[in-house]
Amino acid sequence: MKLQQKLIDLYQHVCWLDVHSLKPGNVSIFANSKDLCVDDFLNSAKVSAGPITEQHDSLGSRILHATKATHQTVGTNTNLGIILLIAPLIHAVYVLDGLIPCEANELEEALKNVLFATTVNDAILVYQAIRLMNPGGMGEKNNQDIAEEPNVSLLKTMKIAKHWDQIAAQYSNNYKDVFNFGLPKFRSLKHRWQDEKWAVTGLFLGYLSTYEDSLIERKYGMLKAKEISDMIRKLEMELCRSDLPGGYEAQLLQIDSQLKRDLINPGTTADLTAASIFASGLVNEPAAKQ
User: Fold this and answer.
1) Which of 106, 139, 145, 171 could form a disulfide with 102 if both were Cys (CB 3.0 to 4.6 A apart)?
2) 283: three-class secondary structure by DSSP
3) What is the pTM of this model?
4) Helices in 3-117 by DSSP H: which ranges?
5) Residue 290's pLDDT band (cuts 50, 70, 90)
6) pLDDT tens digits for 258-285?
């Protein structure tokens, strides 16, 4: 199978898991939101899969073309965060000449080189993609504001934004949370439960209980973001220690209904979850201990 098709298949599988797993506050087969449904997300994944995996595009073009394909199809922001996080991982795979699965340290090093090599033009194209999708709670900033043309590299814009955006923070720390937290937690839960969808739920709750969601923080403030993380923490600990995660479905659906009623969407947490699953699909399993 050609490398691009492997990446398309992995990308679409991650996006399928995104809406077939129970992640409170997010669109899923369990409950749509007021304005979006599962098909919007699946159609977005289908049309953006080709552009995001195009081998010879620059990183900025990869991101812009994928967001344009999504916007032309569904007319709204369904997957900007996923595209922003997964595109550099795909770019790193091509830097490695398609050697996947690879060792985690090889992917991290390639990713570091990709991010370090970003240009002002990459930043300009990504700003266009963000404006097109118009994510919530962006506000105005004194330096490299999204409404203006950037004049520094994409990595530098992300380092400026890392204090209020978790996606920008991943660009700035070379996906430390994805590689050190998300990927191993996802694999651990998947191996324990032998259920990929519940492993996604457990990972999502793990992220949300550990890191305040920056989308919630931008829209409603740090106190609300912290309140949501605190509310999830005990449940996350219980679920991840349990041998029967399905026993928590009713409680999770109740929280899902509450968050949607209050228009609170831990969307960045869902994006980090998706990026971690994608990274897991690129990296070799660690060797079993003798």
Assistant:
1) 106
2) strand
3) 0.94
4) 3-20, 38-52, 59-74, 80-95, 104-116
5) very low
6) 999 999 999 999 999 999 999 999 999 8
